[in-house]
Amino acid sequence: MSVQNKYRFYLSTVIGAILIGLAPILMRYSEVSPSMTGFYRFFFAFLILLTYGAIKGKKFFVNINLYILALPGIFFGADIALWHTAIMITPVTNAALLVNTAPIYVGIISFLFFKERISKLFLISLILSFIGVSLIILNLQDFDVFLGKNLRGDLLSLLAAIFYAGYLVSVRRLSSNLDTFQLMLYSALFGCIPLLALGFFETGIKFPISLQGVGNLLLQSTLVQIIGQGLVIYGLSQISAQFTSLILLLQVLTAAILSMFLFNELLLFQQILGGIILIIGIYIAGLNERKNNHDKK
Questions:
Q1: pTM for the structure as a whole
Q2: Distance CA 39, CA 29 (A)
Q3: DSSP state, residue 142
Q4: What residues make up the domain containing 55?
Q5: What crossing angle do the helices spanning 92-99 and 120-137 adopt, rounded to 10°?
Q6: Cα-based distances in Å from 64 to 69, 114, 117, 187
Q7: CB neighbours of residue 262 within 10 Å
Q8: 141-165 per-position pLDDT tens digit
Q9: Alpha carbons 99 and 3: distance in angstroms, whole number
Q10: Which of 43, 120, 214, 241 has the fewest Cβ atoms within 10 angstroms?
């Protein structure tokens, strides 16, 4: 692969991570429950992709076991459902920090099941990235809140991170047999299952009550689910799941910056420092990725 093509995949993943960072901002304006918002985001994306595929003559049917084909969507839908539930019963800082431990589980899963080596350079980048995310989303003045009493919500966030890691690893593995369109289509379809189940448990089947509410869900479906996740899946076809999971930490930085402008949530010095550390961590992960690719030649 040429250097130009490599950077195209890196840039694709970065842009995808930034767009995914819009999700919690758009969520604040949703007219339905968090899980139902996630369901409509996935379902509308599926309908749009299905229509696009029919017009373009895309290949829908694939020679892969249905249970394996469903894995990325089930993992991702479960991640969103669990995390949205956690936000309701534990401080957002707890939930956001714990769900972004996914890179740790990506490394562990890749090592245990696929024998992918965890290098010292990757561990350094992982530690720096985690410190950066912690500084961005954790108010050190309320550290006692972080330690918290809402153990159930904290455990749900950790479980969501494991499902998120499963999504990244399964997409990376299936990308050798499926193209980006097929991965997006089936991830959106099967992701609806856990989200609809939890949404029904939360409030029953609810619909947005205004055109603005529908527009919000369509914006999430197109910008976040189709374009954002599509770019990440495209990048995952050539970038390791470990590196991708670190790049996706940029969504936290995106949400923090947008919150500052839209909701007057000012960034503290520690959060600015966290953003710088996060970028350094991702840069080191990129050096590790290039080193691994060079060693394979």
A1: 0.78
A2: 15
A3: G
A4: 3-296
A5: 170
A6: 6, 19, 28, 14
A7: 11
A8: 555 554 554 567 778 888 998 998 8
A9: 33
A10: 120
